[in-house]
Design goal:
Number of helices of chain A: 16
Mean pLDDT of chain A: 80
CATH superfamily of the domain at 44-177 in chain A: Zinc/RING finger domain, C3HC4 (zinc finger)
Low-confidence stretches of chain B: none
CATH class of chain B: Mainly Alpha
Mean pLDDT of chain B: 83
Family (chain A): Belongs to the peptidase C19 family.
CATH architecture of chain B: Orthogonal Bundle
Radius of gyration of chain A: 31 Å
Order of helices and strands of chain B: HHHHH
Helix content of chain B: over 70%
Largest sheet of chain B: none
Radius of gyration of chain B: 18 Å
CATH architecture of the domain at 44-177 in chain A: 2-Layer Sandwich
CATH topology of chain B: Serum Albumin, Chain A, Domain 1
GO molecular function (chain A): cysteine-type deubiquitinase activity; zinc ion binding
InterPro entries (chain A): Papain-like_cys_pep_sf, Peptidase_C19, Peptidase_C19_UCH, USP, USP_CS, Znf_RING/FYVE/PHD, Znf_UBP
Distance between the termini of chain A: 41 Å
Number of strands of chain A: 23
Number of strands of chain B: 0
Strand content of chain A: 15-25%
Oligomer: heterodimer
Structural class of chain A: alpha+beta
CATH topology of the domain at 44-177 in chain A: Herpes Virus-1
CATH class of the domain at 44-177 in chain A: Alpha Beta
Low-confidence stretches of chain A: 1-38, 153-163, 346-355, 450-460
EC number (chain A): 3.4.19.12
Organism (chain A): Tuber borchii
């Protein structure tokens, strides 16, 4: 039984290479003759075979066909051993006859029939039964590489096994003659604007640079090959992650697949007009939830999908009847917080802050979690049945998600017109959510003094968040443009369609944010 | 005896054709990785190869040395989960 269970072809190469350590093992064997020629062969036994022109050609051909079978990912996963008839995944294809054997019987076959070479059915690697080891013969490797490319195309970069060991001289040469190319395969790529699609690109960039979502996709969280869904947003996302983190390209990426899949999944998104980034975010999160095993029953907390694991939080709403003090509590799931920028007093129509002082995010949060009076006919108390009683309502954050998304409600849609509130709202690099939690608010009500906004400079605490992404809307409501900022490895970057540039903390903090993403300190 | 073998063969065939075998193996690999067993095993093997204990032996020699130890190191939780998963699949195959 192999210590590693091999499922993916490319992985298999490096796994068995690491285990068998081909070059080091072979080179440490005392060589009969120290000629360079013997290093060109996998082992002495295969050398004997390949040296003879007739046998060599036949062997290579046989190997080629066996390798094709092994590397064909559409073939059946397991085979039946011709001897013991067991159906197993790990089998050897005989190089010299059409037999397929389980490891044990392959061993006896090699002894009985003197067929000393077997091909691992999962990786296509050659095993020499005399050496009792995998061998990596140059000529055969070439055949294998060729088959690999033929089977799966040249889409992925392949590492050749003989590339894995470099001499000291090689390494020195490489270092002396290399210019560093940062920002390659680090997810730092822009999206080409396909016609007012900046609302999409900013949302995508925020997810691409979200450690939880990124890690999920890079760790094969969603496997397109196993996905049976048509028009799957996760498959489209997976493609983006592969492109951004798996290739060296830095040019803008045209998200055609994402675009068309989005249209197919949501009719209202079709067409090339500008959409609201927050709406797109909600759509995308829902799609990614659905396509990653999320339950359709969102009321139950049991959804373990990556989206819920990252964004799921709870809001508690407490309605208190002024008459009998009866409190009705309801808890609702939320995937983001939408904050009003105007004071809740509907009589005041002026700008958010009349004194000219900049409003802060914390103030918006405070307002969000403040007790508000409900209007005359908005509440009927079931307890004291006083219809005219006044009631108060308070929203508090019952459960905080690892990634907190906040929307600043800048867009107002009235019956006759829509407008945008373009004032700057100050937001912090580090946000302490403690004061807005249900627990803290309850403590405040009980008269505890220990509930004011805490200084986030203390550096620890379960409700401390660090800024992760910022989505900015510039311009008018209907003719505006979206850009975003994201942090990667401690460095901030500005994403403007296909243009990705370095940004300073100052750049980020001075932006007129529309959407803010914070990640809990422990994951930051 | 023969019935047992043919039943086994049938079950195996179904496992393969339904794709369940591949799914179970995939699950197993995921569990082994998640629990750190995979990385642990990889390190153990690398160490053994580097130490020279194997006297230049290859794949087979390495397997002989580490197999037992690594098998035992598979976490209880992983074993349990796999048994449960396999059980579930097999139960799905049986009527009544």
């Amino acid at each position: 039984m192999s210590p590693t269970t091999v499922l993916k072809r490319p992985q298999a190469s490096s796994a068995s290479a690491l285990l068998a350590s081909p070059k080091t093992v072979k080179n440490s064997k005392p060589l009969a003759n120290s000629s360079v020629a013997s290093l060109a062969y996998g082992c002495d036994h295969i050398k004997k075979v390949l040296r003879s022109p007739a046998e060599g050609t036949k062997t290579k051909t046989n190997y080629g066909s066996a390798a094709r079978v092994a590397l064909d990912s559409s073939r059946t996963h397991a085979q039946t051993c011709v001897k013991c008839k067991f159906l197993i995944t790990r089998t050897f294809l005989c190089m010299q006859c059409p037999g397929i054997y389980c490891p044990k019987d392959a061993e006896s076959h090699s002894k009985e029939n003197k067929h000393y070479f077997g091909i691992d059915s999962r990786s296509g690697h050659v095993y020499c039964f005399l050496c009792q080891d995998f061998i990596y013969d140059r000529a055969l490797e070439e055949v294998r590489m060729e088959k690999e490319v033929a089977m799966e195309g040249s889409a992925r970069k392949r590492r050749r096994l003989d590339d894995t060991k470099l001499s000291l001289k090689d390494l020195e040469y490489i270092e002396a003659h290399t210019t560093l190319a940062p920002c390659r395969a680090t997810g730092l790529r822009g999206f080409i604007n396909m016609g007012s699609t900046c609302f999409m690109s900013v949302v995508l960039q925020s997810l691409i640079h979200n450690p939880l979502v990124r890690n999920f996709y890079l760790a094969d969280g969603h496997k397109p090959k196993e996905c049976l869904r048509t028009d799957c947003m996760s498959c489209a996302m997976e493609e983006v992650f592969s492109e951004f983190f798996g290739t060296d390209r830095t040019d803008g990426f045209g998200p055609t697949n994402l675009l068309t899949t989005s249209w197919k999944c949501e009719q209202t998104l079709a067409g090339y007009q500008q959409q609201d980034a927050h709406e797109y975010l909600q759509f995308l999160l829902n799609q990614l939830h659905v396509t990653n095993g999320g339950n359709s029953d969102t009321k139950t907390e049991s959804c373990k999908c990556i989206i819920h694991r990252a964004f799921y939080g709870k809001l508690q709403s407490d309605v208190t009847c002024e008459g009998c003090q009866n409190v009705t509590t309801a808890v609702d799931p939320v995937m983001d917080l939408s904050l009003d920028l105007r004071k809740k007093d509907k009589r005041k129509l002026d700008a958010p802050k009349s004194e000219g002082e900049m409003q802060t995010l914390q103030e918006c949060l405070e307002r969000f979690t403040n007790t508000e009076k409900l209007g005359m006919n908005e509440y009927n108390c079931g307890n004291c049945s006083g219809h005219q009683e006044m009631a108060t309502k308070q929203l508090t954050v019952k459960r905080l998600p690892p990634v907190l998304c906040i929307q600043l409600k800048r867009f107002e849609h009235g019956s006759t017109k829509s407008s945008k509130i373009d004032t700057k709202i100050r937001f912090p690099m580090q946000l302490d959510m403690t004061p807005y939690t249900t627990r803290a608010k309850r403590k405040a009500k009980d008269g505890s003094t220990d509930c004011g906004p805490k200084s986030s400079l203390k550096g620890h605490g379960p409700y401390l968040y660090d800024l992760l992404n910022v989505v900015v809307h510039t311009g008018q409501i209907n003719s505006g443009h979206y850009i975003s900022f994201s942090r990667e490895n401690g460095q901030w970057f500005r994403f403007d369609d296909s243009m990705v540039t370095l940004a300073t903390e100052k750049d980020v903090l001075s932006a007129k944010a529309y959407l803010l993403f914070y990640i809990v300190r422990s994951l930051s | 005896m023969s019935q047992d073998t043919s039943l086994r063969a049938e079950v195996n065939r179904r496992l393969l054709e339904s794709g369940e075998l591949e799914r179970l193996e995939s699950l197993f690999l995921d569990l082994l990785r998640e629990s750190g067993w995979y990385e642990d095993t990889k390190n153990t093997c690398t160490e053994k190869l580097r130490s020279g204990e194997l006297a230049g032996g290859g794949f087979n020699r390495l397997t002989e040395e580490v197999e037992l130890e690594c098998r035992e190191k598979v976490p209880e939780g992983v074993r349990r989960e796999m048994v449960l998963a396999i059980k579930k699949v097999l139960e799905g195959m049986v009527e009544g």
